[in-house]
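Sequence in, structure out. Go.
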Amino acid sequence: MAIQVFLSSICNYFASLPLCVSFEVTHSCNADCQHCDKGGIKKETILLSPADYSDLIRRLRPPFIQISGGEPLLREDVVDIVRAIKQKNGLPYIIFVTNGALLNAKKYKALKEAGVDRFSVSLDFPNAKHDEFRRHKGLYSHLSETIPNLASDFPYNDIALNSAITRANLPYLVQLFNKAKEWGVPISYSAYCSLRTGNDDFFISSKEELEMLRQTIQELIQLKRKGDHIMNFSTILLRTHEFFRNGHIPNCNAGRRFLVVRPDGLLNPCSMKPDKQYSAQTEMIEDFTKHNQCGKCYVAIRAYSDMPFWDLIKEYLPYFIPK
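Output:
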């Protein structure tokens, strides 16, 4: 499947088809994270069915899919959704993004058998501060038991932690790496932005914070060179510092390289623009993408999908060459 994913990515790159689509299967969440706008249970009268997601896959043909929310494990039919998304040729590569509160061995196994390729589990702090930040008591304790057990009990090597870099957890970034290593899983970092909540309190901006971030990123790059516990490309880590330093990254391709499917089936160019809703990608590109001047986020889906073509080749190709 690796070669198919790589070739599909190249084809989509030149065909203005998305490299990655995020299926927000629900906007409800069992946490209420301080850096997110999706906390709490939402009244959702219209939700796409598994068959609807199968139709979207045939229309958009993305090589990569994120199943996210809200918290996707709140959908009772989420296993059926995964099964409907995965095609007979193994595409797309499915990343399941979860806070992990409802994750256990039974659900992990069912999702894996349905077609999930990687589980991305959020961790903001390497200790019980995670509970306070996510406003979910006992979450860290659950993760500290569940993630190591899943990593050791199943041979797939398909679980990764993900952590959004904020002012609050800046001093803990290396400790988060150490925690991932202790649990036997890799970690990926992304950048917080205030577009979701309008809260700049978590945005890294002072001279002292930026210098700490620069030094920390250099340390993470050195740690990455010694092993495989950090999933970010070094170029992505360096641009993350650039994003915080400048407050923006220009030339966003939201709507073309990546997009979001809302729980009701309408499309957003990205999760930071929930008010921009479209029924088709072509409509979205004409109305939004061609005029988009926003560069105020550098979340993971954008960081990877927006990479220049030759950087994409250089960074991705080694992962898709059979060893």
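Check: The chain has a mean pLDDT of 94. The chain has one domain: 2-320.
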